[in-house]
Amino acid sequence: MGNLLQKISYGLIVITMVIMSVIYFMQVIFRYVLKLPLAWTGEISVLAMLWLAFVGPAVLVKSEGFISVPLLRPKGKAKRVVSIVLDSVVALILGLLTYYSLVLAGKFKGNILPATGLPRAVVYLALFSGSLIMLLFFVEKILSTIKKLVSVEEVE
To answer: What is the pLDDT of residues 71-80, one digit of tens each?
Structure first.
């Protein structure tokens, strides 16, 4: 499941980048060449940037691409236990973020973005989607670490 979710996340990032590139190009052409600025392009580009900002970090979680500064350098079993505890704290925070972003999306579903007519909930669904994908990746990482910890204990 993790690889499929990672491919979907990459796909979302690529689609978002393509949309942003096309819209920025359209903005320049319509505003400066045709002298007919488009009102909706600003909103769509901001929405695309938000989706990119929330789904992009999920890919980094899966590939462990975040920068980290290790304060503790435990070895062996202790390293895995510390990893499980820290990842569990992050997963808890992501769970809360996922839940409350969905609550917020529900509260704003009746509001409409002025230029595009899209529901304002789309903004909060980007946060929901990104945090949910990150949460799933962290749960997968925690389970993998627990599996490694258990298999090491069985060997000993």
So the answer is: 767 777 888 8
Nearest alpha-carbon partner for 63 in 125, 13, 127:
13
Place of tokens 């609550």: 103
Structure tokens at 138: 């962290």
Contacts of 94 (CB under 8 A, 6+ apart): 131, 134, 135, 138
> How far apart, in whole angstroms, are the C-alpha atoms of residue 77 and residue 122?
43
Using CA atoms, how far apart are residues 60 and 13, in angstroms rounded to an integer? 12
Burial of 32 from C-beta contacts in 10 A (0-12 / 13-18 / 19+): exposed
Record the pTM. 0.83
How many Å from the N-terminal Cα to the C-terminal Cα in the chain?
A: 31
Residue with the two structure tokens 């045709």? 34
Share of the chain above pLDDT 90, in %: 47
**Lookup: tokens for 32:** 């400066």
Residue ranges of domains in the chain: 2-155
What span, in angstroms and rounded, lies between the C-alpha atoms of 21 and 136? 29
pLDDT tens, residue by residue, 106-155: 888 888 988 888 898 888 899 999 999 999 999 999 999 999 888 866 55
